[in-house]
């Protein structure tokens, strides 16, 4: 049966679940990492038609925009710090068929790689654009169910809770 799920509200925690790290009053925009496959063109010597061959997944990047100034977030910018941080995003998703509010949650471990101030213009609220780079861990949950899980160091890749590269990990002898 078809349904429509609409995001109605969002929040972001820049750094663990410290209540003082909630950005719900400043957050105006958030973009979760794009999941985009990498392809390589291949034109076999004995084929008339070129094909694309999947060779991996592009790096993950997430962006968000805050209204006004947030000195705590600005100082998380990567030049002065080598550690990655955990960013946790929550979304209220409305099930339009039943009217229920559902939770969307994304866990993103990375570095704040961009802190860009917008130009000041009198009479308008100046904001800041941020990007989370060097993402090494990503999880996306929808209504309590794991949809995507990836970890660079363990090389685990799961979709809907199912390991998609378990055979590869076993063949390469990679252990937790």
3D architecture notes:
The protein is mainly beta and 176 residues long. The chain has a domain at 8-32 and 62-143: Pnp Oxidase, Chain A (Roll), CATH 2.30.110. Helix content is 6%, strand content 51%. The chain has helices at 71-74, 166-172, and strands at residues 5-14, 27-31, 37-42, 51-57, 62-67, 85-95, 101-117, 127-142, 145-151, 157-159, 162-163. Strand 8 (127-142) and strand 9 form a beta hairpin. It is globular, with a radius of gyration of 20 Å. The model has no long low-confidence stretch (mean pLDDT 93).
Secondary-structure blueprint:
Elements: E1 5-14, E2 27-31, E3 37-42, E4 51-57, E5 62-67, H1 71-74, E6 85-95, E7 101-117, E8 127-142, E9 145-151, E10 157-159, E11 162-163, H2 166-172
Antiparallel strand pairs: 1-6, 2-5, 3-4, 5-8, 6-7, 7-8, 8-9, 9-10, 10-11
């Amino acid at each position: 049966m078809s349904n429509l799920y609409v995001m109605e509200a969002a929040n972001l925690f820049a750094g663990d679940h410290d209540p003082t790290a909630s950005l719900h009053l400043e957050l105006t925009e958030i973009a979760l990492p794009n999941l985009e496959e990498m392809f390589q063109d291949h034109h076999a010597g004995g084929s008339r038609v070129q094909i694309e061959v999947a060779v991996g997944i592009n790096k993950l990047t997430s962006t968000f925009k805050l209204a006004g100034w947030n000195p705590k977030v600005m100082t998380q910018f990567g030049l002065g710090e080598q550690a990655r941080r955990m960013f946790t995003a929550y979304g209220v998703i409305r099930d339009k068929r039943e009217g229920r509010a559902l939770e969307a949650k994304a866990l993103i471990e990375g570095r704040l790689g961009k802190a860009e101030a917008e130009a000041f213009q009198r009479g308008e609220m100046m904001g800041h654009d941020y990007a989370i780079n060097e993402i090494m861990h990503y999880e996306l949950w929808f209504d309590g169910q794991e949809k995507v899980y990836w970890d660079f160091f363990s090389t685990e890749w799961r979709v809907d809770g199912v390991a998609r590269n378990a055979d590869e990990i076993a063949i390469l002898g990679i252990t937790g």
